[in-house]
Fold:
Amino acid sequence: MAYYPVTYSCGHSDRIDLIGKEKDRQRRLAWLESTGLCPECWEKKRAEDKAALEEYKEQTAAEYGLPELIGSEKQIKWAKDIRFDFLKKSERLINETKPAAVILLRTMNAWRDNALRQESAKWWIDNRGTAYRYIDDDYGQILIGDALKEYFKEYLKKNDSEQMLKEFAAMSDEDLVVFVTKALNRETIQRGVTPIKKDEREAAA
Structure:
């Protein structure tokens, strides 16, 4: 261990102790002088960055017309973080989904639209696992896509896309919200065997 004088990129000077090989110490000193900030300036920058991010989250929520969240201060702060992550990443997933995948697109949009209408901070906290699986790169799409294939497998075997699309069109958005929730939580969904219950449909409304 040895002490070295350093002038940070912010202009403040100090003496710091460094360990390791001399070339590694010199490399560290060079980085601190060209890029690094002193502890006080680093804390200040971190606070400024955090405030800027929070402001950006508020601006984004306003831009998308999202509702004010209801709950305790702690719940609202946590829920806003979850909702912001979901909003930005789910938008990218939707935009990257091929327009031809009409069934997958409508199914994913139904859950996304329902989520972004929620006013309860508790809802976001309770459903954070489902929300994060939805936006987990391609994982959510795979779970939903596989569930849809399983659900409509009889039509797919017969290559009967007309009847499949007709039945899908008759499904309400509330049905699709429940469907996606079950799919993302890896629950078995079988057409004609796993009916969507009234209380599940009402909860999704």
